């Protein structure tokens, strides 16, 4: 009998865990979906340093075209929180919302870069 009760308790725990995961997943689904077009509009403020095409015109600003969206989001959030220090980027990123950051990351990650290997 105790073995049966143990199995029932374990099955109940599994169902509760799955239900909780499903509930959390549905709540997470309400998060902002990154918008490439919105990112292009927002990228106007980034263009002076990084270029609208993600290819920097300035030696101290990196090329960001084609960088993975997750990487770009992490870096922009790190600049916003000042976990990552850069005088310019800390100021630029400070007012950005998570949605702004996701849109910008979507835009710059959607850009493709042609690479020419040297001979």
UniProtKB/TrEMBL annotation:
Species this protein is from: Afipia massiliensis
- Signal sequence residues: 1-33
Q: Give the record's keywords alphabetically.
A: Electron transport, Heme, Iron, Metal-binding, Signal, Transport
Identification of the protein by name: Cytochrome c553
Start and end residues of each Cytochrome c domain: 34-112
Question: Which InterPro entries does the UniProt record give?
Answer: Cyt_c-like_dom (IPR009056), Cyt_c-like_dom_sf (IPR036909), Cytochrome_c_Oxidase_Subunit (IPR050597)
Molecular function via GO: electron transfer activity; heme binding; metal ion binding
One Pfam family linked to the record: Cytochrom_C
